[in-house]
């Protein structure tokens, strides 16, 4: 049985009356659930076992939307989401109203993502990661999980959440789950629902670019970026916001002489829809130009 609760009191009661003796995992979402979210739920269940408790939060967090991003147009389908989660054996769905999460109105004290919030995705969406971390911080406090599960598709978000937990002393394990893709390679995202057939075809350039970049890993960091960039340049329907090869822990861009495991991140717009994707790349270190 899945308990669907909307208030803090009902959430606390649902958490405390769970018959299981095991651990608790939370999956935080903004709803409009697709099969990628359901894989996060499966990972949550695996993490806590059959007697553990799996909690899914559904909340479209206004704090992480910029003034020019359409919060009202974000897809919402609570009954459809609950049906999907019931079929996946979720114990508790917490779907609060804005006033429940932010009872004092928009918060005056928020979590800052610091420098991490100002680069790459943060540079495109000022304040976004502050909004994400503020709500993640609150939802961790409200749901009190042992494990919190996040998708690797939002790589910078995942790293920011790991820093939140480290820097602000949350006693929770953060579990990253690999990106789920459609058969054609497009990373699953609630925003894919906005794409026309042509835009979807154009959007495939992102995963193709990442594949080309990964294949170029043995030729060094510059070749990774050049190969990915060449694929994107062939598709005028994609306006690239950034393409970057970064350190997987700091999200800082790596040097051309870098060797080791890096993340290749891409973000772009197809029509008015923003798409993000990333892939891990093994980069071979090449001697710096001019050195013998
Ligand atoms: O990834 C998301 O859906 C959101 O950023 C999150 C983590 C649920 C916070 O609102």
From TrEMBL:
It catalyses: (R)-pantoate + beta-alanine + ATP = (R)-pantothenate + AMP + diphosphate + H(+). Its EC number is 6.3.2.1. Catalyzes the condensation of pantoate with beta-alanine in an ATP-dependent reaction via a pantoyl-adenylate intermediate. Belongs to the pantothenate synthetase family. It comes from Paraoerskovia marina. One of its GO terms (biological process) is pantothenate biosynthetic process. One of its GO terms (cellular component) is cytosol. This is Pantothenate synthetase. The reaction proceeds by a bi uni uni bi ping pong mechanism. It is found in: Cytoplasm. The active site is at 37 (proton donor). Keywords: ATP-binding, Cytoplasm, Ligase, Nucleotide-binding, Pantothenate biosynthesis. InterPro entries: Pantoate_ligase, Pantoate_ligase_C, Rossmann-like_a/b/a_fold. Its main location: cytoplasm. It comes from the Bacteria. Pfam families: Pantoate_ligase (PF02569). Homodimer. Pathway: Cofactor biosynthesis; (R)-pantothenate biosynthesis; (R)-pantothenate from (R)-pantoate and beta-alanine: step 1/1. The gene is panC. ATP binds at residues 30-37, 151-154, 180, 188-191. Beta-alanine binds at residue 64. The keyword Cell membrane does not apply. (R)-pantoate binds at residues 64, 157. One of its GO terms (molecular function) is ATP binding.
